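Ops channel
N.P.: pipeline sanity check, posting one input/output pair.
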């Protein structure tokens, strides 16, 4: 596994903290749970199973997407550091 993936998946933990400690995120989580409960009450048992599978699919897609965005951002930050260091070296 690549080092950035190791970092992303928590195998390397430079800092343990919750990135989403704001009211907006908490409200969206609460609203999502409420809407899920309302929808679940309307579904047949078979539809509930399909819905749970769909949720799992979306969760996996989201995780993969977030990992790639994290890696891209990290690489951009590294390129910025390299450029800053190169420009510092040329002016010294």
């Amino acid at each position: 596994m690549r080092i950035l993936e190791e970092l992303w998946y928590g195998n390397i933990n430079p800092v343990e903290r919750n990135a989403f400690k704001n009211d907006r995120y908490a409200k969206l989580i609460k609203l999502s749970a409420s809407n899920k409960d309302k929808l679940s009450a309307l579904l047949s048992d078979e539809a509930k199973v399909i819905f749970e599978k769909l949720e799992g699919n979306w969760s996996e897609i989201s995780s993969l997407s977030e990992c790639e965005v994290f890696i891209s951002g990290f690489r951009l930050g590294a390129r910025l550091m390299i450029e800053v260091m190169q420009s510092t070296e040329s002016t010294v």
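N.P.: looks fine end to end. The chain is about 80% helix and 0% strand.
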